[in-house]
Amino acid sequence: MERVRRFLARHGIEAELRVFSEPLATVGAAAAALGVEPERIAKTVILAADGGPVQVVAAGDRRVDRRRVAAVLGVSRLRLARPEEVLDWTGFVAGGVAPVGSLRPLPTLLDESLRRFDHVWAGGGIPEALLRLRVADLPLLTGGQFAEVCQEISPTGSGP
């Protein structure tokens, strides 16, 4: 979490970082704790693309479509990263991954659906923290590009 704070300070970004008493590792838990709609929670999904990491940031009402991600990146193999890979590549545990402040810059895709909002809430670096960011700041902060890489999920659906 401190790495996230330092990263934001270095970039001159003022963002709200809230710490809760319990882990908020799912979109539903985060939305309930904040009293917001699930789509306002930005989930950060780490994938292994041809063996290397890629980060996808998506609204909570979307599911990452690995075929779309692979097509945008021009890779042949893509899978969900294992928890130990997430920790190694980002420095964050799965369930607390922030879209900013990783140990090293990661190739990043930002799903187009995020553009519906001025601000979103994302992981804050630990499962108990949430970070409010301006969507307009995401490309600068992540080095990422917007692309259509997700599908809408039904209200009862789940997934990365």
Protein described:
This protein has 160 residues and is an alpha/beta fold. Helices cover 24% and strands 30% of the residues. It has one domain (2-152): YbaK protein. It is built from 5 helices and 10 strands, in the order H-E-H-E-E-E-H-E-H-E-E-E-H-E-E. Strand 2 and strand 3 form a beta hairpin. The longest helix is centred in the N-terminal third of the chain and has 9 residues, at 2-10.
Overall 3D form: globular
Low-confidence stretches: none
Q: CATH topology, anyone? A: YbaK protein
CATH superfamily: YbaK/aminoacyl-tRNA synthetase-associated domain
Helical amount: 10-25%
Number of distinct helices: 5
Which architecture would the CATH scheme give at its second level? Answer: Alpha-Beta Complex
Compute the number of structural domains.
Answer: 1
Topology summary:
Elements: H1 2-10, E1 16-19, H2 27-34, E2 41-49, E3 52-59, E4 62-64, H3 66-73, E5 78-80, H4 83-90, E6 108-111, E7 119-123, E8 129-134, H5 138-142, E9 145-147, E10 150-152
